[in-house]
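Hi D.,

Good news: the full-assembly prediction came through. Inputs first.
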Amino acid sequence: MSDKYAPLPEHKFSFGLWTVSNRGRDPFGSEVRPPLAPVDAVKMLAQVGAWGVNLHDNDLVPIDATPAERDRIVKEFKQACDSHGIVVPMATVTLFFDPAFRDGAFTANDPAVRAYALQKTLRAMDIGAELGAKIFVLWGGREGTETDACRRADDAVKRLRHAIDYVCEYSIAKGYGYTFAMEAKPNEPRGDIYMATTGNYLGLIPTLAHPEMVGVNPEVAHEQMAGLNFTHAVAQAWEAGKLFHIDLNDQVPGRYDQDFRFGAANPKSAFFLVKFLEDVGYAGPRHFDAHAYRTENYDGVKDFARGCMRTYLILKEKAARWNADAEIQAIVKEIHEPSMPTPAEATYSPAHLATLLGHTFDRGTLAAKNLPYERLDQLTVEVLLGTR
Amino acid sequence: MSDKYAPLPEHKFSFGLWTVSNRGRDPFGSEVRPPLAPVDAVKMLAQVGAWGVNLHDNDLVPIDATPAERDRIVKEFKQACDSHGIVVPMATVTLFFDPAFRDGAFTANDPAVRAYALQKTLRAMDIGAELGAKIFVLWGGREGTETDACRRADDAVKRLRHAIDYVCEYSIAKGYGYTFAMEAKPNEPRGDIYMATTGNYLGLIPTLAHPEMVGVNPEVAHEQMAGLNFTHAVAQAWEAGKLFHIDLNDQVPGRYDQDFRFGAANPKSAFFLVKFLEDVGYAGPRHFDAHAYRTENYDGVKDFARGCMRTYLILKEKAARWNADAEIQAIVKEIHEPSMPTPAEATYSPAHLATLLGHTFDRGTLAAKNLPYERLDQLTVEVLLGTR
Amino acid sequence: MSDKYAPLPEHKFSFGLWTVSNRGRDPFGSEVRPPLAPVDAVKMLAQVGAWGVNLHDNDLVPIDATPAERDRIVKEFKQACDSHGIVVPMATVTLFFDPAFRDGAFTANDPAVRAYALQKTLRAMDIGAELGAKIFVLWGGREGTETDACRRADDAVKRLRHAIDYVCEYSIAKGYGYTFAMEAKPNEPRGDIYMATTGNYLGLIPTLAHPEMVGVNPEVAHEQMAGLNFTHAVAQAWEAGKLFHIDLNDQVPGRYDQDFRFGAANPKSAFFLVKFLEDVGYAGPRHFDAHAYRTENYDGVKDFARGCMRTYLILKEKAARWNADAEIQAIVKEIHEPSMPTPAEATYSPAHLATLLGHTFDRGTLAAKNLPYERLDQLTVEVLLGTR
Amino acid sequence: MSDKYAPLPEHKFSFGLWTVSNRGRDPFGSEVRPPLAPVDAVKMLAQVGAWGVNLHDNDLVPIDATPAERDRIVKEFKQACDSHGIVVPMATVTLFFDPAFRDGAFTANDPAVRAYALQKTLRAMDIGAELGAKIFVLWGGREGTETDACRRADDAVKRLRHAIDYVCEYSIAKGYGYTFAMEAKPNEPRGDIYMATTGNYLGLIPTLAHPEMVGVNPEVAHEQMAGLNFTHAVAQAWEAGKLFHIDLNDQVPGRYDQDFRFGAANPKSAFFLVKFLEDVGYAGPRHFDAHAYRTENYDGVKDFARGCMRTYLILKEKAARWNADAEIQAIVKEIHEPSMPTPAEATYSPAHLATLLGHTFDRGTLAAKNLPYERLDQLTVEVLLGTR
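Then the structure:
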């Protein structure tokens, strides 16, 4: 492979501990890969050229660990990260694996579960802070229902808000400096999950006590499970100043959560995503929340990890090529030109209103404007396929 | 049929002019029903017992009408409404039918199209105001793409915001007293539509100049096209004070926009929706944005319209029955009780934090909490099926 | 609850051992229920009123059992079934759980895996035969791909045919008297599974060496995952004489495999299914391949099992009511009458051809035929909701 | 553009008359392009380098044409084809556009509609035969339901069989030499369409009177609407000797019927399809059943048509490159080798059975087999992206 696609720290490629350590268990089959110790996962990430590692509390510290075990484990992990030159940009908490959370965590009907979930999150924040993380992701994997008979859905919203407000205060009180990135998902493992799309979180955030501390962590697979255009969701988040983190992987629409290698399901939609992130200058981590096929051994896991980063860099190069393509740029210029004289776009004013209402538009002229989008898309396909 | 399900004005059932006047054209077939004049549609709605009628500008006034024609048409329509006791609670604008809008309206690349879309919307607001409408719906049916090469998606967001801000100012300036209800849709007729879900609009609204004037108009079919739980979206909007209008119909997930009779595709999800709206006391119109099968004549259109309202009222009665069912309520009570002593839920304070962090939770106890949701859902099914 | 919906042996309700023994593990969480021994599952099924139990080889006999252990286990299980009056109508084989099958079984690339899969299936047939099963289901859960680079898809078809032909010969040679029921699924746990729909198997069967021995086992969830109309698939299978078994459960389209309680996701589509099965006189087992929510304990598992059967019987009663409803039947009669005189329907003959080609049809008359399907569907909804 | 991707007659690229003549009407908008006369469409196809044109009867001959008009139109069209060097490989019939077919054609409840549909099909076969077509496609666009209350689904199967048997006899009687290619679709314009997938037709064909005359016409979009792997469906059809025709276009899963330019939605799945067709030596037409975006004028339609063919040829070249790549082929070889000694694969015989049952398999060895599918897929992606 060409060196020009080798990952560098400046690319900010990170992987979840849980991704490279994924053992291939699924609803219809047992584990196929032996356990991978967190320090060995860090070593592997260093080998493949990653920049960072992210983790849930229990990816690293067993849920039953004593405080002393917890301290030792975190310390050793930190040392391993340091010695391999791997940073920990993001931490999160598992509020979904243990049977205690089988009806949710922050939104569970049992008040004791809600309190426990909050306590567990605060302790996960401690771990993350100790490891240097400044981004805290919250994915409410069990915050949902199989039957809406169990709870009023607006109560779930209120409970969720309460929890987020609380963790923001805790971060302030402790001086952790966290931003929180909320991760949406429409379903699985619950029949329906509250806050189904990134948009739902963008709607919740302004209702929080500290909206400035909270943004989103859109995930390719989660949006595409619902058949939605992921780049559109990312763009709205970016435009609102809320793109605090991103989870890259791939997914065929309308299916179980596949978490495929980045670009593996649909390289064209991956291209538009990379192009957007690079065009706007997104400066955060490029986190791969994916895992290797269950057919792989750990050599295959490395192939998988390398493939994620390499495909990103290939697509980044193609985005630059697209931007530099004269024919493409000529079309882009043409399609943005007005078809006929028109009042300048401006915010409302009585004067502008008068001009606008007084203007005569010719619908035939508007409809005749040349918009060669087929040609533009075909050129895009050819940049993607490398024949241009 | 029993009289107890007869529609009354207090139920606030409304239909779009375009719904009962739908002539059955689709991508693979021509019209099957003759044109229905707006005044005849109003008459039909009165016959079936509806309370209100909604309209796009061009449902009533042809796009090429002269000002004099426009005035005459609106006046006659108002008289027809008055004589039939039908109100016009909501108006909207078609920014999708004419070829001028083939690349969108507020987000089109052509600045002249954007200006024309704005002008057309202002004039539609005039019509609505004249007819007494206080809710103005905006559905951006063509605001989207088939290829993301054509425009940066964040530019679309900015353009959309500009337009919404403008129309808010216009409503203020004219004293129309409108609230605006934004209607999301994931795709069709565009490959992807911006603001794919109700959540996306909830996220956009707080970034507007007049967020207090703008809410959402969730539509069953549009959310279910993406396989999302509609009641969850409605609940979030309601909880945020943003449920300004609602479009009732039905839809099988993952398909073309079907706009079926309310409750026809899935009566169980329709039940949870009606139950939510009635439980929270939603006081706005129950608008049916649906149309009769293409196999129907206008008698069938009446059957369709009657069916929408009747099913709503049957489900409303079932919701009351559910709330009154002792066994169901006992389960609802039980599932909300704490499994073990737990710190009271409260906003963050140092004292509460200390209590929370000092509390010991027993995960086994949390996991053992009785949550008879299968039983609860089965009882719900039996209320729905009328065997309880 | 009323006794009239109590399950009886004549209803032929069966459950898989794996369904009531399901422990609630999913991709994001560990087991929530303790193990349930096969004999205890049989006892539970007797308690709730089921007629039969089905099993995979390894639901009963551990994959590593010695021949002596196997014999003892099967014998004890048979005794438990007998003492509880539970029959074993169907058996199957797990070719998906063990890591050996991570790339499939009959279609795996490794010839040794294919041979082992065959051997394992023959031994599972021995177990089933010993327990009295006459139906053998084959679900190729791992027969698929994440990348089509790994194998030519037509090779997979050939390999699958080879295996089915082999097991048919084995059944003949041993005198087991099995019929084989092939179960399709579009995806999960593989990215894509070969033989994605029931239709694909209906297409494969005629190419087998013993097509008369092989039919299908359609599953509600598997067809609805792809958004398909399950009743249509069942009807085609029935009409072809190939409905050898059926898996009842429920599923929202376009999602992970939910395996909900029968009728829980969409009672209307469940109604049409039950109505079809009862109308045509399907005489085979009504097998529930579903499992309780992960929020349940074993009392909830019983609620779940009872709910499956009870909903079936309620819908069966409603189907009879639909058939007896005079208004409904009048519409059914009307919609099947010719709109105008027309040549009698007949197989091709020169004489019929001459008549047909000589006939003049009036398209306007054809298009004016009254088809009150909205009314018919609304009446159906009201039968379903119990208001009629 | 490079000449090496120029379409040639040997590539057998065909377009439907209805594809390049598509005027951009959709459910939410009127036509955007002026009518294109059939002879002008042929001229355009010649300009862009196509080999063939396909047509529905009414694409060419208006439904109300007199016999004399019909004869003149067909004759002139044949002359236009001849003079432009365009062949007519396939013909079909529209049984979905006219209101007469609003409840289906061959499966309609009205016997007069069924008879008219048959008559119309026979006359469409006459047109096709006169133009030299040897493939006749049948797509039952209206053969379906919005409510299953209207008809028993097995009756629909019987009616469909009757019609297919009849048209086969007609072809024999007239000596037309047709093969029939059945085209499946899951839904749209009907709520559900019978024979939802290619598999369903593969299942129906063996039950016909002349199965040897009938195969399938799989369409990318129709299978992908249901989220199914199109190449798998094509492979099964091919393996059964039933791939009589193919409709190429593109489609995002779980949406309305998009009919995008070939390769536009997902170039990777298009790659696997092209690779399959070329690897097996499919010799039939490569028919593009797609249309240009509604944003285009007729220059854009040409861009669209050129893009379909060009992308096919680029992917064909990449398929050859994949086959010639040494690293890829080494992996392909490795993954097909047995992990351990195993009985040779053979049809059933008592001797083989004895060998198979006597063999000891080591599950650990089977599970340890190296299957570097991540690497293989990444190499595939890089061939696709042109970096290899």
